[in-house]
Amino acid sequence: NGEIISYSISESPSAKNIMDALEKAIKVTAKSPYRRTFHSDQGWAYQMKAYSKRLKEERIYQSMSRKANCLDNSIMENFFGILKQEIYYGTTYNSYRELKLAIEKYIKYYNEERIKEKLGWLSPKQYRIKHMTV
To answer: Which stretches make up the Integrase catalytic domain (predicted)?
Structure first.
């Protein structure tokens, strides 16, 4: 459904932020009746032994894009393109904090209110709730 289930925003990347986001995603998807797959690019964070080990402990399949192939991660590439169009391009943010708050607000909007034709004109959250009760 394209819902953003976990994220971490920081001024610089760190293993702690990546692991914190992973733990949140594990918690959010813990009761899923389906096989869980976590897909990412080949960034350093997703190749950490601690990251891979944690996925294995939870019996989560790790999927990675092929090197230099954005099409393998098209769902996230599409999300970031939409985010940039809707809140970034043409907007000046006066601080890191202001940008971070705008992104957090946008992710909430994207998940809960922004409808998609491919989801039957529902938001990702509405779609998930509807199909969990079927």
So the answer is: 1-132
- Close Cβ partners of 115 (under 8 Å, ≥ 6 residues apart): 121, 122, 123, 126
83 in Cβ contact with 103 (< 8 Å): yes
| pLDDT of 134 higher than 60 | no
Domains by residue range for the chain, with CATH: 15-132 (3.30.420.10)
Of residues 30 and 67, more confidently modeled? 30
pLDDT for residue 133? 63
Amino acid residing at 23: E
Residue 127 CA: distances (Å) to CA of 101, 111, 133: 25, 10, 10
